[in-house]
Design brief:
Jelly Rolls, 2 domains, five-stranded antiparallel beta sheet, DNA-binding, Tscrpt_reg_AraC-type_HTH
């Protein structure tokens, strides 16, 4: 773990905002929480340099230009762009040029923040993405600033909701997969429909790709991008969902359930089910029967 280090040139205007928050024990254990949040109008000599800080940072450029150095790469920052970084790693960001760099920013943390960061990094080739002026990110950061000007009973809870919106927006934008089912290509939607309706059949990636007249590689890549799983993993998920329904509501043997969901080998079915639920089919059935 690197030693903590911070060096800041506080060259921002008098009407800039920086608010520091101290999270409660509940927030630290259960929520996403704000550590600092602000709105800077940074002058030409502004910069921040740090390392070894247990925090994640999201910065959105409203106007002007900046530059980010992070993980041995340098990135230009312009209006409508946002970056998302882990402050344990060295970073340096600064105003570029003689003008004012207007930025909205949040230092945040929480028990699952790293998972969001890893999801973002898994999709994005760089920590900087174009969010656009119509993104929810700047509005949510402004709401967070307003919430932290006056702390009241639900500040942390409402902040967690806003932070979830921002983190979700970043991951969705990084994935490039659009924000509704309408953005999913027709051949991917058709493959989903085929799996949903024909999960009992012996479906293979080759079969699904041939039916859509695309290569196995292109189908796998697009399916993972837009659905979040590969086609065969999605098929297994659909089969497990139907298996759960049978286990909960039908008094049929496990071997018959395996056949009904398209898996010929009962032992293989049991292993798949346990891998994905942590329980054997019989243990799952017993658990749910006891709750009824």
């Amino acid at each position: 773990m690197p030693a903590s280090y911070v060096n800041v040139s506080p060259a921002w205007s008098a009407d800039s905002v920086r608010l520091i928050a101290t999270p409660s024990e509940l927030a630290k254990s259960a929520f996403y929480f704000v550590q600092e949040v602000g709105h800077f109008y940074a002058n030409a000599s502004y910069f921040t340099e740090r390392e070894g800080i247990d925090s994640y940072l999201i910065v959105y450029t409203v106007s002007g230009s900046g530059r980010l150095a992070y993980r041995n790469q340098s990135y230009a920052l312009t209006s409508g762009q946002a970056f998302f970084i882990d402050c344990m790693d060295y970073q340096h960001y600064s105003t570029i040029g003689d003008g004012t760099w207007e930025l909205l920013w949040i230092h945040l943390n929480g028990s699952q923040t790293r998972r969001y960061y890893e999801a973002f990094s898994g999709y994005a080739s760089a920590p900087v993405i174009t969010a656009g002026s119509d993104s929810i990110i700047p509005g949510r950061i402004r709401e967070l600033i307003d919430l932290h000007r006056f702390h009241f009973a639900h500040t942390e809870l409402l902040s967690a909701r806003l932070l979830t919106d921002v983190l979700t927006e970043l991951v969705v934008l990084a994935s490039g997969s659009g924000q509704s089912p309408r953005d999913v290509p027709a051949y991917v939607r058709q493959t989903v429909q085929a799996i949903d309706s024909r999960y009992r059949e012996r479906l293979t990636l080759e079969t699904l790709a041939n039916e859509r007249s695309v290569s196995k590689f292109n189908l796998s890549r697009a399916f993972k991008r837009y659905i979040g799983l590969g086609p065969i993993e999605y098929l297994i998920q659909v089969r497990m969902n139907h298996a759960k329904e049978y286990l909960k509501y039908a008094d049929v043997p496990v071997g018959e359930i395996a056949e009904r969901v398209g898996i010929d080998n009962a032992s293989h079915f049991i292993n798949l089910f346990k891998e994905r639920t942590g329980l054997t089919p019989l243990a799952y059935r017993k658990q749910w029967k006891s709750r009824r």
